[in-house]
Amino acid sequence: MTKYKLTYFDGRGGAEPIRMAFAAGGVEFEDVRVQIAEWPSLKPKTPQGHLPVLEVNGKTLCQSMAILRYVGKECGFYGKQSWEQGQIDCMVDTLADIWTTHGRVIQEQNPSEQKQLITKHTDESIPKVLGIIEKALKDNSAGKGFLVGSALTIADIRLYCTMDYPLMVYGFKLDKYPKVAAHRKMIEAIPKISEYMKKRPDDKIALELLIPMMKNCRI
Ligand SMILES: N[C@@H](CCC(=O)N[C@@H](CS)C(=O)NCC(=O)O)C(=O)O
Question: Which fold has domain 4-75?
Answer without folding.
Answer: Glutaredoxin (3.40.30)
